[in-house]
Amino acid sequence: MKISFPIVALLGLALAACGGNDNGNSGNTATSTTEAKVSVTALGAGSYDVVLGDESTPTVGHYYAAADGSRYLIVDDSNALATAVYKDAADGSWKRVPASASDVSISFLSNSTSTTLKAIDLNALARSYVALVQGSAVAFSLSADGKIVASSSASCKLNGTVGADVVQGARKLSLSTAGCGALPATLQGLMIADGDYAPAVLRFVLDDGSQITELWAYAE
């Protein structure tokens, strides 16, 4: 089951990037200091479109399970923007961002499906991009060796390194920011490429351990 990124969601990115809503984009500041138990059904290596919740009010998510046992679950809202990220560092101990105040146990409905995404070819993706951050277009480039470099003219600087494949269609990403308002200075997460996200080319779903930062990159 594929979920296309709706154009209407573009209208919410500016507000989300500056902390104006609770849709999981870069301004999602919902946090909790409560240590809650988190469990998520383990799936085999691969990528999946998953459905959770109950059949009357289902929620869509994207599940990425790496061969090394690490797993990521991104839960979206109705505008296809991340509201929560669940991470398992291959030892079975899941963590939720933002943290939950109560225990969480997630299983998937039967209409969850495995997906086949193309491997991320950095050579093909190497170019200049723009992302919407706090209502402003922020330019950066992605090189064939996986380096994200901020535009010299950008007041908000995005720099980072794209890491190894998690699964086809998703790679690890480390990003640093400077002059970007409320965005955390250091972020870790995934860079995802999926044709269903057009016109966006890349989706960044990142966190600093307490809040989600989500950016959509468009080719300049």
Automatic annotation (TrEMBL):
Q: Which residues form the signal peptide?
A: 1-16
Superkingdom assignment = Bacteria
Q: Which UniProt keywords apply?
A: Signal
Q: What is this protein called?
A: Uncharacterized protein
Protein species of origin: Uliginosibacterium silvisoli
